[in-house]
Amino acid sequence: MEDMEHPLFRKDCRDCDFCTGLREENPPEAEKPVVSATALIKSLSFLDRFLALWILLAMIIGVLIGVYQEAGVREVFGGTSGLQGTSTPILIGLLVMMWPVLTKVQYERLPIIFRQRSIWMHIGISIVLNWIIAPCIMLALAWATLPEAALERERKGVILVGIARCIAMVLIWNGLACGDPEYCAILVCVNSILQVVLFSPYAILFVNILGGGSSTELKLDYSHTAASVGIYLGIPLAAGIVTRFTLKRILTDKSFALFLKYFGPLALLGLLYTIVILFAFQGNRIIHNIGSVFRIFVPLVLYFFLVWSSTFFGLYFLNRRKNGANLGGYEKAVVQAFTTGSNNFELAIAVAVASFGTDSPEALAATIGPLVEVPVLLALTYVALWLRTKLVWKPEGPIILA
Predict the structure, then answer these.
(1) Residue 115 per-residue DSSP state
(2) Number of H helices, E strands in the chain
(3) DSSP label at 190?
(4) Over the stretch 252-268, which tens digit does the pLDDT of each residue have?
(5) CB–CB of 181/174 below 8 Å?
(6) What backbone torsions phi and psi does residue 87 show, to the nearest 5 degrees?
(7) pLDDT tens for residues 109-127?
(8) Residue 141 has pLDDT above 80, yes or no
(9) Which of 315, 280, 324 is nearest to 11 (CA)?
(10) Radius of gyration (Cα) for the chain, nearest Å?
(11) GO annotations under biological process (predicted)?
């Protein structure tokens, strides 16, 4: 019934036959049976359930490869560099990671979703959070924790991570935390479009001007950013759309669901592969610059926790207001939290490497971004699943179409 319009277009109606039938077919979250976080975690696949362990092992393996096979790693990265200095091995890992997730998105529902008023409110909230609040928070944290002139270049690398909005990892975290996949895909696409327009001027403003110091300046143009978004999002998005609609035409619903079940783990394998490559690339530098690395950890850890928690709980309290706008329940709040709390590390690394060099402090700081983001946001997925059962979310009303 979700594709039907309310006959009177009334927000305050709850008792007519239309709304009663809608609630019976789509019970609000608060009326659904309560499932404990432990039960949710136990229901995950073997790969999902022990993902924290696999990520830890991938980090250790990557560091060991980087320390003991540094020459081989440098040869691979130097000989197969892709867009703006980003290596082809990283690019392959990101594409493999995003393809299965984007295949699961129900694109056929998007026309209905775009007719809901709430999606336009979420898009507006996402723009404010991602392009005004989050970059300013990272700028403030970078200056507060790395104020010394000697750490100017590390500070600029951290700031660069803060202005690159996520278009990849958020899909993984949202899926693990049981967020709304369609809303997530919409917000990722919106941020991708804005990234093409805003990343270059933002980078010059935040890094060259607000970042302080007098080191080598960052130089960007729109074509590089547009090409980055086109490669990192456009290719897996096109692959996901083609895969979904092609297989749905030739397979039964049961067979397609079975395909997704076995195709889905490929995303997490892509994530683990990418982590190994990243740690191998910077493993030796991490070991020999451990002091700077821990200094860089501080603003990044604070950023991910602060931005994620403020977004999640902010939407929760808005959800609980009696007279406030109904912005949806847990599934919508967790989408916004991970969209705002994640960063486009592939673009940040590519720009840092191209502008400052592979061995630069800026590139080291940009590379440490995902090394911090992955374990922190993985931990926050478990926090989100726990809060899903501990917090009481205001039931969603009937679907209101614009």
Answers:
(1) T
(2) 20, 0
(3) H
(4) 989 998 998 888 888 88
(5) yes
(6) -75, 150
(7) 888 878 888 888 889 999 9
(8) yes
(9) 324
(10) 22
(11) response to arsenic-containing substance
